[in-house]
Each structure stands twice: as C-alpha cells, then as structure tokens.
Amino acid sequence: MESTSGKIEIRCTVNDEPQSVNAYPLERLLDVLREQLHLTGAKEGCGEGECGACSVFINGEVVNSCLVPIAQIEGASIRTIEGIASPDQLHAVQQAFIDCGGAQCGICTPGMVMAAVNLLQRNPHPSEADIRTGLAGNLCRCTGYMKIFESVVRACQNSHK
Amino acid sequence: MRAYVPQYQLVTPASLNDALTLIGNEPGVWKPFAGGTDLMVLLEAGKLPHHNYLNIWPLRELRGIEITDDHVTLGALTTYTEVQANDILRREFPMLCQAASETGGLAIQNRGTLGGNIVNASPAADSPPALLAYNAEIELVSSNGSRWLAYDSFHTGYKQMNIRADELLLRIRLPRQTVELKHYYRKVGTRKAQAISKVCLAAVARVADGRIADTRIAVGSVAPVVLRCKQTENALRGNELNDDTMTLARATLTSEIAPIDDVRSTADYRLRVAANLLVDFLKTARS
User: Fold this and answer.
1) Do residues B117 and B127 touch, judged by C-beta distance below 8 A?
2) Any idea which fold B5-55 has?
3) What is the pTM of this model?
C-alpha cells in the first residue's frame, strides 16, 4: 500500500470477487472499474459528484465513484450495477424500471437503480418524500423523473407482495 | 482539462503518529486528503495545484463520536451521514444535522467529512455556520502535542486558517446546552439537493419573558469567511422580540456583512435574503 512513486497494488472485492489492481493512487475508482475490470455499467456524467451516474456501493454505502481515489479502496467491498441482479433474476428495482419505462437514454439508469436499491436496503418502506430524497443525488438529462420515481414506487410495492 | 494523475501522490500512513511524523519532518510537502469530495473535483478539472497528499481516510484516530456530560466530540473524519444518524446530535444540535442533510446528496454525505468541510475553508460551506452558532472548538495535533482553539478564531481570511503545516485537525467539540435554545438553520440555494448555497444562516437564541436573553448568529456566503455576526448579536441581546427589534436586526446585519457578486448570486440578493433569514429567525423565536 505504500507509495513512493508510480503505481500501487490495491486489493478489494468487486461484486463478491476478489480483485487486485495496479493503478496510480489518485486514479478514480470509476476509471479502474471501467477500464481495468471492464465493468462499464457505472457511467461518467459530470465527473464532479453532481449527477450520480457513476454511483457504486463501497461497503454497502452509495458513493460517486468519480470522486473516490483508488488508494482508498484497499480492503473494501465494492458493488456495481453488474452485481445487483442475481444470476437468474433481475432485482425488483431493475424489473420495475423496465415495467414502468424508467429508462430513456439509459445514461443515468445504472446510478438511479443503485440509488434506489440502496434506499430500499436502508428503508424498505420509504415515503414518497424519502424516495425523492433518496434519488436527489442523481440527475436525468432526459428529465424522465416521474417515470423513474414511479419505478421506485412500483419496486417497493412488488418487493412487499 | 483533466490532471495528469501519475504526477500525484497519495500515501497511506499506518497510524496518526506516522502521519504526524511525516508532516512534521516535511512540513508543507504533504496535505491531508479525506473523503475527496472537494479535492477530486479539482483534480478532474485540472485545478489541483498541490501534488503530494496524505491519505488520512483510514485513520481510526480521526473517527467516532464521543459523548460526555459536557461535550459532544466528533472525529474530524465524521461523515455527514454519521452526523445525521447520531441521536444526541439530532436532539441537541439539530442545525448541524440539518446542515449535514443539505450538503450534496447521499453519495456526497457518505464521503464528505466535517473536518474536510472546515479545512477546505469555503465561505459557502454548510456546516461551519452551525458550528459557529454552537460555539464549537477544534483540536489541532502535531507530533509536538495538541491545542484546542475556538472555531471562531480558526478562519482568518479567504482560505486562510490558524493551522500550521505540521498540524492536522483531529476533533471538533460542541459544548452541550444547559438551557433551552431556539435553533434556526436555513440554506438558500438553487435547489434542495446538491446546490452550493447563495446564503446560509444558522442562529440560536435563548428567549426569556419575550426578550432575547442571548443569541449567536453565523452567516455563510456573505464574506471571505463564514461569519459570526457579533455586532448584530450585541445589538439584539436584551431586546424585546417586537417589530422594532426586527428593524434593528435588519439594519445591523446589513451593515455587518459585505457579500459580493459571483457566479452563484449577487451582493444585493445576498444582503436582502440574509436579512430576511434573520428576521425569519426572530419571528420563529417569538412564536
């Protein structure tokens, strides 16, 4: 983990798989996920923590992966959008986005799904205000907010059936 | 334009002692790097001038919230999410929790730290007005020892701070209230989430027999530093909560602050809204 110059080796788990990557310490988690691990679900929108398109979980907490230097990932457990569905079934949130037309161009969708999954993990019975707050860090340039919001409402209903 | 990342270093010390030894031996060479919510934005924009950073994020010594009879003490790496989750903070320091809930969105709140908000030294930061109104103190440590100082004396000018190059911000301490206070925090921005404030006011008052027995008022985004408005406090202390006092409050605050025009707002707007917030605070305190 000590760096004098050049790349460092970082060990972590990504979607339950142990990984070891070599990278410059201030390389963004987003770039390592996309370019080294070929997990291209997390998107770069703004690159400054405003839009949430790059959202992933670190140790269960949602973060903007564009703002996390890889040196701070040592020993951490990462989950990306690729690790949300089980092998044979979409997550309830993903299915609801399909059923409700929650995705338009698709750039914000992985981040929206991650924010919604995280919300339901923290709060299985969110109010409408909780859902809005839970999605507040994610921007949709298509402005399809109502369908995204309805998708999360549907996901809550379906996961309680 | 993005920065060239191989030019940057981020070294991880094994302990607080190691960190303090390093910055003690090479003062000014290493700067602390916590949750990265400000520094990574500058990096991406190619505007991060300093190149060598100390990764303090894993240091346990800078984490945790400690409660005693007299104080709540927060490690400098306490995140906005951790602030909001603490029951005692929610009960006794609601303005700090509200500030934390209105900083960025959840993903920022999971990474941004109270200490980072302080040493990033933005006059538009959300938690400093609450910290000033609650009379916070901060502890700075170096390999030579530690010192406590009133947070009110920490920011000395735009991005200028009372901290040496061999020191780290270790903890923030809030004196627990022994009397009932009215708390008022309001951030005005372009939208509820993610916005950087145009004006932010945090104030507490002790009200007795319809009078302002005591008050502490702090305003963000209206000066080179987040400002404790002591002239206004002095003018208001002892006054009855009536319309004349509201007029006095407006006039005094307007002469005490000197906001500027910038990309987020105008001086005129900030002046008027800051005074409106103060009057709103006094009306809330009256009811």
Assistant:
1) yes
2) 3.30.43
3) 0.96
**Contact predicate A34/A27, CB 8 Å:** no
This complex has an ipTM of 0.95
**Closest residue to A50, CB basis, from B58, B81, B194:** B194
CATH T-level topology, domain A8-82: Ubiquitin-like (UB roll) (3.10.20)
CA B38 to chain A, closest CA, distance in angstroms equals 8
CATH assignment, A92-159 = 1.10.150.120
Chain B residues in contact with A5 (beta carbon < 8 A)? 9
Confidence of residue A1 (pLDDT cuts 50, 70, 90): very low
Cβ of A3 and B9 within 8 Å? yes
Answer yes or no: CATH 3.30.465.10 is held by domain B60-175: yes
Distance of CA B205 to the CA centre of its chain: 19
Average pLDDT of the residues in A101-122? 97
Q: Best mutation site among A50, A64, A112, A135 for testing chain B: the one with the most B CBs within 10 Å?
A: A64
- The whole-number pLDDT of residue A2 equals 45
- The whole-angstrom separation of Cα B65 and Cα B102 is 20
Is any Cβ of chain A less than 8 angstroms from the Cβ of B27?
no
Domain boundaries, chain A: 8-82, 92-159
Domain B182-286: CATH superfamily is: CO dehydrogenase flavoprotein, C-terminal domain (3.30.390.50)
State how far the Cα of B36 lies from the Cα of A67, in Å rounded to an integer: 6
